Hints:
40% of the residues lie in helices and 7% in strands. A four-stranded parallel β-sheet has the order 2-1-3-4, with helices on both faces. It is an alpha/beta fold and 311 residues long.
Amino acid sequence: xxxxxxxxxxxxxxxxxxxxxxxxxxxxxxxxxxKLPFRSTGTSHSEGVKYSGLFKLFSDRPVDxxxxxxxxxxxxxxxxxFHRASLSREGDKDNDLTNYENFANWHDWNNHHVExxxxxxxxxxxxxxxxxxxxxxxxxxxxxxxxxxxxQKNIEWINSCKSGSGSTKTYLFPVTSFFSEQSFLKxxxxxSKAFDLKMDLTxxxxxxxxxxxxxxxxxxxxxxxxxxxxxxxxxxxxxxxxDIIQEAYIYATLEREHDFITMPLVDKFxxxxxxxxxxxxxxxxxxxxxxxxxxxxxxxxxxxxxxxLKK
Length: 311
């Protein structure tokens, strides 16, 4: 069996299938590929694509000694995008992340996640998790990346590349490289040079455009950042419809940036940035205390940190 030129690895949501397609279809070392990789859900898992076999791919486990390098490992360097893409698109699904009532059915493994949340929040049997509880659980994951399973698994996979056979040279391909055509082409240029792939990148823009048009997560990715920028600039703007993970990210960022303030535990989210600005400005002094969801406070371990209290 021919050893692969490269092995691409990555968790769900990091677009490793699309990257493998781009490499194989543009490299001067492999034949042209006529068929596009996209399914109706926007993922690049279409059957019948004739890959050359020169570029291996797997996404169900980290590297072990039987895997042949060098490796291209997908890096989840934007945790908000990583979370949303994996929950929405894994397994060729197209989950509506605004439909939080159906959270347990987004993926098979979500039932286990639901049980963990019930245990953490001391909730008994219930038809579905209240929105403010689910949002708060995601918020804690953004505030404490050391206990964020998705983020930590990504680090584990990156480190596992050292254990492969042959060359263990590893090229990290950040998921943020997919956010614009310019950054994607630059990363591909560097990748091609690193492994002498002789890639014809003139073919990429047309396919990249289709990738963006079919990617709802990418299309809405900047919405929370625009809200946070408006709050920072003390500027009024209406808040568009956000999914529960985007709401959690906004809450996590605001709590990290504003000492002693915790965001409200209610289902309803803010309607405009003026409401957020007012909430922060007039948060009562007598309610201010060390935030138990923050692992550290001013660089010092937080004695009230929730993860410690759960043990």
